[in-house]
Every structure is written in structure tokens, then in C-alpha cells.
């Protein structure tokens, strides 16, 4: 006999409306649905239209009849670029437009129907911490999901201490290679230049910096915190976080959890794409023709914008390396118009393959891939770790500066190239990764990949933490 809907748990998941955040939170939605929870996934209108355009999202998710999609405006026009250099516009519009609309939708019980029980809790992107106050007013527990690394979250958490200790703001006289003393547990490797990009504001009243400080400190008021990481990867940072936040759920890598759990369910498949651009699968055919671990894969994610000069430096470095390369050049990801110089055309044709967007998880898992030139976004970092692919890290903004330092200095699974974009350095790093130091990196990446798989397998740390999260959500239904 079916349970009445009032006896079932129902979670509202609300991601910040950009590709990387939607990607991992949609994977969490699938995992919760697989365990019998009802999930409403609230996307911005803009994001949802792109999902409908470039994925078969409704067909793919028919296997989850307890997963529902709803939309809400993000307040920006369709022609707004929504790139990393304009992300503050998105924060502002969500605060003025989306926030009051969400309150209205919740008051009107928009997400509860005959098929859907009342909301048990809200899981919202941690950068939109206003949901904590909304949830408290409506008596709905709110769990925050920070889509960044634990180490970056901890660095954000320590910003008030950095300011009090005089290590911020950064000025023209600051030595960017100075080790920081006010981020506990990271004193031996975290430099001023490794702080998140928002920290480079010379004015402490900067809107982006203040927003990050406020949101991170507000996390302590949430019912819990979810991080897409695993204990074996970021133990020191997690040990510090747990001193300040009691309910912490480390459940990553989420894409690995999804693969592991779906594999045990006959009839379920792992939805492969939540892409906001059309994936060009011809790159897989091209990779099939390349030698084993010979190709450098280049992608700077969904938010990075290169200058024309930076684009040319990367192109020169890649061609001059003599190694085959697959490069994702997203539409409008180069700020100015450009033409490939005549002297590079032949090398690009012979060794390069350029697409507008690629099925990244599949690309990184291809046997031809020998390295990843990346912006060090957290999803990309975890995907590369899982596949055992070493990285050249060129961070653009937000958490990426921290991630690149970890990859190069702490985990020893790549090379950190932050704050420089020079063809000679790029050429050398590609050769080091693919050729000169390949055995060294193969050893360290194999170890990390093994730990990632172990954490997401049955009885692994992340596997057990996800079970604990699900159990705690079900207890919320009963008012515990």
C-alpha cells in the first residue's frame, strides 16, 4: 500500500544559476531521488531554457518520477553574459528580484501539490544564504551546499581573521608570495596569491568581498553544510571546519557517488549531461585516433573570459609543445575578436582539435588524455582526480586560486601556473606533464583516483556521509 504524500520527505534544491553549481546539485538531486525522497529542483528560467535546448533533460529524468523541475527568474536579461567577470551582477539581481519571488512561492506553497508532499527542507547554494532566514521564518530547515572545495570554504571563513591580522587588504606593496598565518592548518603552503580572487580587492568594502564574508559566516546559522569533497582529500581543512560547524556532510565526488550507486540499480542510468552548451561529440572520434596518454585537454570552464593576448599565448605554447591538444573554446570566451596567425595554422591543423563545448567527464576518461590544462574549477578538479589525469592549473576567479595551489603544492598532481600567461612557460609545462615528469605524476594521480573511488564506494567515507544526510532529512519530516 502506497504511503500518503504527507508521510514522505520532500526537498527543494536551489542552485546558484551557473553551469558548475547546477551540475553538481543536479547530481545530488538524482541521488536523493534514488533513495525515495521527493525533490523539486528550482532553476533560473535562463538556465532551464538552456538545459532544454542542449540536453534531453526531461527524457533522461523520466526514470525519476519523484524529481520535479520548477523555474524562477534570476533578474538578468537573456543577453547578459553571466561570466565570471560580471558575476556580481548576478548576485545583485538575485538579491533584488529572485529573493522576494522565492519567498512568495514558498508562502503560496507552490512546490506542494497532490503528488508532492509539503517541503521537508531546503538545500540551497551556500552563496545564497538568504534562504536560511526565509526558511526560519517559514519553519523549513535549510541546509547549505557550498560547491567549492573545503579548503577554499575554510579560507573564506578565515577572512575576518586575515583582516584583523593585517594580512588583508592586498596593496601595491604586498608580497604575493608571503605565507599566510591566519588560515589555520594551511600556514605551510597558502600564500597571499593563493587566496580566492575576491580577496584581491584593495577596498575592504568591496561588494564581492563583503558578500563572500557574510555568506560564509552565515553558514553557522544553517541546519547543516554539504561539501562536494571527501575526507581523504581535504582532511586538514575539514578538521578546522568541524570545529565551527557541527553538522557537516562531505559527500563527494558527487559524480562518482552517482556512478557507484546507479551501478547497483538495474534499470537506472547515470544521466551524463547537464550542459548549457551543445556538446560536440566529434572530439571523441578525434581522440580515438590519438596515441595513449598523448593529448593535453584544454578547457577553462563556463565562466572564464580570456583576453586576445592570453588566447594567443596559450595557442603558441600548445602548438610549440609539439603535443596533440583538444581545446574547448566556448562561445564568447575570448573578449576580443581574433584570428589564428599564419605561422600557427599548420601546427594547429596537424595537432590541434578545437570545439565549442565537450562532454568533459567522457573526455577526461578517454585513454588518449595525458593531461588537463584547466581553470581549476572544483567540478573539473574532482573529475580530473577521479580519472587520474594530472593538471596544469591556470585559475581565473573565486575558489580556483586555492584549488590550483592544492593541486600543485599539496596533492602533487599538477602544476600551478597562476598569475602568468606566457607561451614559453605553457610549452614547458605541457612537456613536463605529458613527457618529462609523466611517471612522477602518474604515481600521485593514481593514488588520488584510488582514494576518490574508495570514498564513494559502499562503506566509504562519502558513501556513509550521504546515507547520514538522507537519514537526517527523513528525521526532519517528523520534526526531529
From TrEMBL:
<dbReference type="InterPro" id="IPR035595">
    <property type="entry name" value="UDP_glycos_trans_CS"/>
</dbReference>
<keyword id="KW-0808">Transferase</keyword>
<dbReference type="Pfam" id="PF00201">
    <property type="entry name" value="UDPGT"/>
</dbReference>
<dbReference type="InterPro" id="IPR002213">
    <property type="entry name" value="UDP_glucos_trans"/>
</dbReference>
<keyword id="KW-0328">Glycosyltransferase</keyword>
<dbReference type="GO" id="GO:0080043">
    <property type="term" value="F:quercetin 3-O-glucosyltransferase activity"/>
</dbReference>
<protein>
    <recommendedName>
        <fullName>Glycosyltransferase</fullName>
        <ecNumber>2.4.1.-</ecNumber>
    </recommendedName>
</protein>
<dbReference type="GO" id="GO:0102970">
    <property type="term" value="F:7-deoxyloganetic acid glucosyltransferase activity"/>
</dbReference>
<dbReference type="GO" id="GO:0080044">
    <property type="term" value="F:quercetin 7-O-glucosyltransferase activity"/>
</dbReference>
<comment type="similarity">
    <text>Belongs to the UDP-glycosyltransferase family.</text>
</comment>
Amino acid at each position: 500500500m502506497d504511503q500518503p504524500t504527507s508521510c514522505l520527505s520532500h526537498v527543494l534544491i536551489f542552485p546558484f544559476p551557473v553551469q558548475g553549481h547546477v551540475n553538481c546539485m543536479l547530481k545530488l538531486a538524482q541521488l536523493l531521488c534514488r533513495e525515495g525522497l521527493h525533490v523539486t529542483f528550482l532553476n533560473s528560467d535562463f538556465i532551464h531554457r538552456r538545459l532544454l535546448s542542449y540536453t534531453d533533460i526531461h527524457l533522461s529524468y523520466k526514470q525519476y518520477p519523484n524529481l520535479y523541475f520548477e523555474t524562477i527568474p534570476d533578474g538578468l536579461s537573456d543577453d547578459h553574459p553571466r561570466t565570471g567577470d560580471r558575476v556580481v551582477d548576478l548576485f545583485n539581481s538575485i538579491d533584488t528580484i529572485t529573493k522576494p519571488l522565492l519567498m512568495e512561492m514558498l508562502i503560496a506553497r507552490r512546490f506542494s501539490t497532490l503528488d508532492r508532499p509539503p517541503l521537508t527542507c531546503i538545500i540551497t547554494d551556500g552563496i545564497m544564504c538568504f534562504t536560511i532566514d526565509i526558511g526560519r521564518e517559514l519553519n523549513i530547515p535549510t541546509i547549505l551546499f557550498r560547491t567549492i572545495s573545503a579548503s577554499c570554504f575554510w579560507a573564506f571563513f578565515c577572512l575576518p581573521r586575515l583582516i584583523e591580522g593585517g594580512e588583508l587588504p592586498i596593496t601595491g606593496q604586498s608580497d604575493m608570495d608571503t605565507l599566510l598565518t591566519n588560515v589555520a592548518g594551511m600556514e605551510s603552503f597558502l600564500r597571499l596569491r593563493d587566496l580566492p580572487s575576491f580577496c584581491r580587492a584593495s577596498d575592504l568594502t568591496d561588494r564581492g568581498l563583503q558578500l563572500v564574508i557574510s555568506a560564509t559566516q552565515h553558514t553557522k546559522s544553517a541546519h547543516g553544510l554539504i561539501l562536494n569533497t571527501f575526507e581523504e582529500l581535504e582532511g586538514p581543512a575539514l578538521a578546522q571546519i568541524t570545529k565551527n560547524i557541527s553538522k557537516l556532510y562531505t559527500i563527494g565526488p558527487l559524480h562518482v557517488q552517482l556512478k557507484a550507486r546507479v551501478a547497483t540499480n538495474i534499470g537506472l542510468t547515470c544521466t551524463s549531461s547537464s550542459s548549457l552548451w551543445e556538446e560536440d561529440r566529434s572530439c571523441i572520434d578525434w581522440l580515438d585516433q590519438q596515441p595513449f596518454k598523448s593529448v593535453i585537454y584544454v578547457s577553462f570552464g563556463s565562466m572564464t573570459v580570456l583576453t586576445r593576448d592570453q588566447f594567443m599565448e596559450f595557442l603558441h605554447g600548445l602548438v610549440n609543445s609539439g603535443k596533440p591538444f583538444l581545446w574547448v573554446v566556448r562561445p564568447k570566451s575570448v573578449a576580443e575578436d581574433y584570428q589564428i596567425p599564419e605561422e600557427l595554422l599548420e601546427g594547429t591543423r596537424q595537432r590541434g582539435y578545437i570545439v565549442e563545448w565537450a562532454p568533459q567527464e567522457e573526455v577526461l576518461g578517454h585513454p588518449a588524455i595525458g593531461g588537463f590544462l584547466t581553470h581549476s574549477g572544483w567540478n573539473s578538479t574532482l573529475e580530473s582526480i577521479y580519472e587520474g589525469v594530472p593538471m596544469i592549473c591556470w585559475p581565473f576567479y573565486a575558489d580556483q586560486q586555492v584549488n590550483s595551489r592544492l593541486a600543485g603544492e599539496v596533492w602533487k598532481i599538477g602544476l600551478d601556473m597562476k598569475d602568468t600567461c606566457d607561451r614559453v612557460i605553457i610549452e614547458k609545462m605541457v612537456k613536463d606533464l605529458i613527457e618529462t615528469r609523466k611517471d612522477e605524476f602518474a604515481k600521485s594521480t593514481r593514488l588520488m583516483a584510488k582514494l576518490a573511488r574508495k570514498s564513494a564506494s559502499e562503506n566509504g567515507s562519502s558513501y556513509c556521509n550521504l546515507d547520514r544526510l538522507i537519514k537526517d532529512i527523513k528525521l526532519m519530516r517528523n520534526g526531529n
